[in-house]
Amino acid sequence: MTADVEECFRKIIEKRNPPKAEPMVDGKSGFLYFDKNGSICYSLHWEHYFQHIIQKYNNTYKVQMNVITPHVCRHTYCSNMAKSGMNPKALQYLMGHSDISVTLNTYTHVNLEDVREEVARIQVV
């Protein structure tokens, strides 16, 4: 985690409505977000938030938004980092994958335009 990311997380914790009792899970506390009942937000909470936002958007606008989940965001992050030229082993570490093939073959998505850009980038003029 970079110092900037850590600082952002600290600010979120400072500004959040503190729970009545700070929850502890496996010896860890200081969670970023809580639901309306004061419980820790888990991935299922975020999936519901995403669904609600997409539903609200699609009810308002003619052009419909595709399904987006936190897991889709994880794939997008991995693909964008790979396309930016991040060292694959560093990316594997950040993604928490024990096998590099999961990072490169499952989470990293490229298309024909990505390939064209990469070929153009490495061509010697």
TrEMBL record:
- PROSITE patterns this protein is in? TYR_RECOMBINASE (PS51898)
Query: What InterPro entries is this protein classified in?
Result: DNA_brk_join_enz, Integrase-like_cat_sf, Integrase_catalytic
The regions listed as transmembrane in this protein's record are: none
Please, which domain of life does this record's source organism belong to?
Bacteria
Gene Ontology terms for molecular function: DNA binding
Keyword annotations: DNA recombination
Occurrences of domain Tyr recombinase (ranges)? 1-120
Pfam families registered for this protein in UniProt: Phage_integrase (PF00589)
Q: Name one GO biological process term.
A: DNA recombination
Q: What is this protein called?
A: Tyr recombinase domain-containing protein
Q: Which organism is it from?
A: Eubacterium ramulus
